[in-house]
Write a structure and sequence with these properties.
Pfam families: TFIIB, Zn_Ribbon_TF. This protein has helices at 3-30, 74-80, 114-131, 135-154, 158-173, 182-196, 203-209, 214-228, 241-248, 252-268, 276-290, 297-304, 308-323; strands at residues 40-43, 48-51, 57-59. By secondary structure, the chain is mostly helical.
């Protein structure tokens, strides 16, 4: 290596060190009083930067980015937090727009006059019009309303509604709606989301709360799953047991016995080709008989929304699978 190369590298290191020292000295000067060189302190109460030695006010009217309240424990901090609601896929605008309440009262709780009520009604009308800018958003608003209505009727949790909203948004973006009804795609999205979350509902239950026929629901569901490549496992009869047992007010022993019957039937290969809802209802009825709990086939049929004939046929098969040799 030549002397020129060595000298050049040493010069670069020296210049880099000088630059760093210059920046450090500049930052130190920023923390010093320009008059006496004293230490600067930030007075957050008055929004000022003051010299601790001579009292010179270096900066004033600073923006206080902290809260205007004090909290002495985590619970008070959470209660006094003034952030808005989190964004959600359950609303067409993800909850970011303004919503005018339906109460005809002012900020003090006093009722509005008739003229003020008319003005507020006009504001609500125009606010609803402005929230949906085009046909796509109107479509999404109607569909998400349908999903929320059906999920409430079926007792599905919020996570299922969120998932169903995401599935419908994907279907809308993939242009899968032409030729199909909004209610049909919304019901299919909710049915798929419930199965993905292991809280399935039967097709009959979905049809009871939906505005579409069962045939349209099954056809639309298969189309949406195929086009969006949704990974949905076959419905497991065990996933229906907790709901049936709870609706029938049976004991935990009955639920545990019903699970044992389904596991035994699965080992014997009886579950293949059978309706999971019928198997779950039959397992609950058979388990209730084995644990000496009083429940009729009619009661189980009403809860599971299947015929009594199906229960009789399936529960006999389940009992035979238990008696069958391993």
């Amino acid at each position: 290596m030549s002397d020129t190369t060595i000298r050049t590298g040493a010069e670069e290191q020296t210049s880099e060190r000088l630059r760093e020292e210059t920046e450090e000295s500049a930052s130190e000067r920023e923390q010093e009083c320009p008059e006496c060189g004293g230490r600067l302190d930030a007075d957050t109460e008055h929004g000022e930067t003051v010299c601790a030695e001579c009292g010179l006010v270096v900066e004033e009217d600073e923006i206080d980015r902290g809260p205007e309240w004090r909290a002495f424990n985590p619970s008070e901090k959470d209660e006094k937090s003034r952030v808005g609601a989190p964004t959600t896929n359950m609303m067409h605008d993800k909850g970011l727009s303004t919503n005018i309440g339906w109460q005809n009262k002012d900020a003090y709780g006093n009722s509005l006059s008739s003229n003020q009520r008319q003005k507020m009604q006009r504001l609500r009308t125009w606010n609803e019009r402005f929230r949906t800018r085009d046909s796509k958003e109107r479509n999404l608003k109607q569909a998400l309303g349908e999903i929320d209505r059906m999920a409430s009727a079926l007792g599905l949790p919020k996570t299922v509604r969120e998932t169903a909203s995401v599935i419908y948004r994907r279907a809308l973006e993939e242009n899968l709606l032409p030729g199909r009804s909004i209610e049909g795609v919304a019901t299919a999205s909710l049915y798929a989301a419930a199965r993905q979350a292991n809280t399935p509902r039967s097709l009959d239950e979905m049809t009871a709360v939906s505005r579409v026929e069962k045939m349209e629901l099954t056809r639309t569901y298969r189309y949406v799953v195929r086009e969006l490549n949704l990974e949905i496992k076959p419905a497991d009869p065990e996933s229906y047991l907790p709901r049936f047992v709870s609706d029938l007010e049976l004991s935990d022993d009955t639920e545990r016995r019903a699970r044992e019957l389904i596991v035994s039937a699965r080992d014997q290969g009886i579950l293949s080709g059978k309706s999971p809802v019928g198997l779950a209802a039959a397992a609950v009825y058979a388990a209730a008989l084995l644990t000496n709990e009083k429940v009729t086939q009619s009661e189980v049929s009403d809860v599971a929304n299947i015929s009594e004939v199906t229960i009789r046929n399936r529960y006999k098969e389940l009992l035979e699978s238990v008696d069958a040799p391993a």
